[in-house]
Specification:
alpha/beta, OB fold (Dihydrolipoamide Acetyltransferase, E2P), Rossmann fold, Ribonucleotide Reductase Protein R1, domain 1, 6-stranded mixed β-sheet, 5-stranded mixed β-barrel, 13 strands, globular
Length: 350
């Protein structure tokens, strides 16, 4: 495994990332993040690197600037055992959700530079289509390719028809980490990176272990009463798989708030967006307007009421988050101007 660590292309490094690296700095990929420090992989092996002062200043106003698992970063150090992350190299994709604190309208990056987003949804006790749609909006917005995995397929019959209807444009698979069903179709190769998203107990860590062919992540038994899994993973971590791919396991997500996800929503609900394009009025709100193609499709059974309600809910959430973000940006701009004005007043005093 140590030889893989020294092979940067096997970790996803290429000429595009190299072009953004400043001379004299060392490229590294973040595998785990703790408070103020990161585990990173470099051409010389695994290292521990702290956030530089410049990075901390940037993150003070924009948490998205902080390194996250999957990031390529530029590090330097004044000794062989002390390294600092000077900057995060431009991301090609990023999974960003709204801040988890009440009323906060800032983004939190869950994973970066991933090629595939595996959305893990367990077959038991039941498949939650609304949760899948929410994750799909997050995944499409990231720039990566979403794949819906119905996990624990050995515990209950899985009908993918409804799931496929709720995930237009995305690949849908039924998988079982116990029997191996569907695993060959989701293996990663050639330095490609995937991230696993899903609720607690969805079987993400068990799936990672099955793909790795070893117990790389801790797991717990499911509850016999209802087949639910139990929360195990407590941090995000990038792992190298035997087939040459990389996968990021994540803790179960209790809050999956959308953040700046207009395009992601449009792709996740591309069927409704297509219907909306047929409405008589271009500003149709799809509530009670005459000639509304969305309402007509719902009345005729072409569009399920459940999916329409899910779309409306996520649209309202996206509008609310955008308004909070705009208000925060205005407040930050006003604070900056106040500081400038105070400074100018001080300079003009005799």
């Amino acid at each position: 495994m140590a030889s893989v660590y020294c092979n940067l292309p096997a970790l996803g490094w290429d000429d595009g990332f190299a072009a953004s690296l400043k001379p004299g700095r060392i490229p590294a990929r973040v595998t785990r993040v703790d408070r103020g420090t990161c585990d990173v992989l470099t051409a010389d092996g695994e290292r521990r690197a702290a956030h530089s002062a410049a990075l901390k200043r940037a993150a003070a106003t924009d948490p998205v600037a902080l390194p996250c698992v999957g990031d390529w970063v530029a590090i330097d150090g004044d000794s062989p055992i002390r390294f600092q992350i000077q900057e995060v190299l431009p991301r090609r994709s990023s999974i960003v959700r709204a801040g988890v604190a009440p009323g906060v309208a800032q983004g939190q990056v869950l994973a970066a530079n991933v090629d595939v987003v595996y959305i893990a949804e367990p077959a038991v006790p039941r498949v939650d289509l609304g949760r899948i749609e929410r994750f799909l909006a997050l995944a499409w917005e990231s720039g990566a390719r979403p794949v819906v995995l119905i996990t624990k397929a050995d515990l209950a019959p899985v009908d993918l028809t409804e799931v496929e209807a709720a995930a237009p444009g995305a690949t849908v698979r039924a998988v079982s980490s116990l029997t191996g069903e569907g695993l060959e179709e989701v293996r990663l190769r050639g330095g490609r990176t995937a991230v696993l998203l899903g609720k607690s107990g969805a079987g993400k860590s068990t799936l990672v272990n099955a793909l790795a062919g070893a117990d790389r992540m801790a797991t717990r038994e499911i509850r016999a009463a209802d087949g639910r899994g139990r929360h195990t993973t407590v941090h995000r971590e990038l792992l190298i798989l035997p087939d040459g791919g990389l996968i990021i396991d994540t803790p179960g997500l209790r809050s999956i708030g959308l953040y700046d996800a207009e395009e992601g929503l449009s792709q996740a609900f591309s069927d409704i967006e297509e219907l909306a394009g047929r409405c008589r009025f271009h500003d149709c709100a799809h509530e009670a307007e005459p000639g509304c193609a969305v309402l007509a499709a719902a009345e005729e059974g072409e569009l399920s009421e459940r999916r329409l309600a899910s779309w409306r809910k996520l649209q309202r959430e996206a509008v609310w988050t955008a308004s909070r973000t705009d208000a925060r940006l205005r407040a930050e701009k006003n604070r900056a101007w106040k500081i400038i004005h105070r400074s100018m007043r001080g300079m003009n005093r005799p």
